[in-house]
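Work Package 4 report. The design task specified in the project plan requires that, given a folded chain encoded as structure tokens, an amino acid be chosen for each position. We show below one input record used in the internal validation round.
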């Protein structure tokens, strides 16, 4: 079981990361769009592994586990589709930064 300080440290790290993510998205940093794929991968892996572990402790048959993980994959697929479509948002800044503006 996690101690009081482990939970607080995890919350602090998570808060710092998401503050950085929000700032990078606001700035339309194209590097963060690529990092978003890592975030999606880690989130899916963590969710699938956590749910599989939780369901196995509850003695639920493998069918329930497969259905839950498949549902997680479908939701993740929707987020992947949405994130792919956001690429243009991040590319607009890059294109406008390389185009000289008249004085």
């Amino acid at each position: 079981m996690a101690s009081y300080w482990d939970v607080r440290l995890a919350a602090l790290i998570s808060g710092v990361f998401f503050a950085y993510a929000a700032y990078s998205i606001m700035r339309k940093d194209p590097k963060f769009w690529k990092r978003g794929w890592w975030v999606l991968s880690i989130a899916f892996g963590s969710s699938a592994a956590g749910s599989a572990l939780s369901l196995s402790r509850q003695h639920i048959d493998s069918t329930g586990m497969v259905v839950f993980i498949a549902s997680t994959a479908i939701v993740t697929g929707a987020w992947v589709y949405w994130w792919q479509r956001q690429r243009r948002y991040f590319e607009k800044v890059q294109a406008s930064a390389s185009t000289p503006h008249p004085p």
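Helices lie at 4-26, 30-57, 62-85, 87-98. Validation will be extended to a larger panel in the next phase.
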